[in-house]
Amino acid sequence: MQNKGFDQIFPVDDKGVPLLDMTTNLEDLWKGMEAQVDAGRTKSIGLSNFNQKQIKRILDSCRIPPANLQVELYIYLQQKELVSFCKQNGVTVCAYSPLGSPGQKAFYEKLGESTEWLLTPLEDPVIKEIAKKYNKQPSQVLLRYMIEYGVATIPKSTNPTRIKENFDVFDFELTKEESEKIRALDRGEDGRMFDGKNSRGIFKLLSKHPESAFPK
User: Fold this and answer.
1) In this predicted structure, what is the pLDDT of residue 124?
2) Which residues make beta-bridge pairs with 71?
3) Per-residue model confidence as pLDDT tens digits over 175-195
4) For the whole model, what pTM was predicted?
5) Rounded distance between C-alpha atoms, residue 125 and residue 184, angstroms
6) 129-141 burial, b for 16+ CB within 10 Å, e for fewer?
7) Cα torsion angle, 51, 54, 60, 65, sign
8) Exposure class string for 83-105: b at 16+ Cβ within 10 A, else e
């Protein structure tokens, strides 16, 4: 975003469109992040929504390497090459929307927009079959797979029961066959819901930025 001062964190033009800084320099921004560590304002710094090339640029120029990468990651968008690259370079990975962001349906319905393009991993037959076997919820199977995949997960919920369920994923393990079935559900870029071909809102706008990480 363009810098309009602390009182305008998300500045917009006269039509309400967010004002993007089209001259963003990722390396310079990272140097600013490193300065926060030096000043004692934070202990760890990381990245979000970066692709492999962008991460490499930071690794090649940094003094303090990124501790973590946060990206959209779930069964239909497993980003295997990106996860592997991060692990090889000591960058932990955190998956946002590990359940496929089911809340988007209600959001777009309120806007009167079609939701046919939304993917629903919680309803996937493979996931439901495994959940039934372990007497678990589909959400718990999705989270268990991500954990065994070697990434952190940050599922979003305001429902106390579901929040508790999200923690209750350490009393079962997926078999090799089950993991392979889930791994085969990966749709690559067609599985992306944020910053992809079906993206909406701010993510649609960000796709026009020269540093857009996932233009496909």
Assistant:
1) 96
2) 95
3) 999 999 999 999 998 898 876
4) 0.87
5) 13
6) ebbeeeebbbbbb
7) negative
8) bebbeeeebbbbbbbbbbbbebe
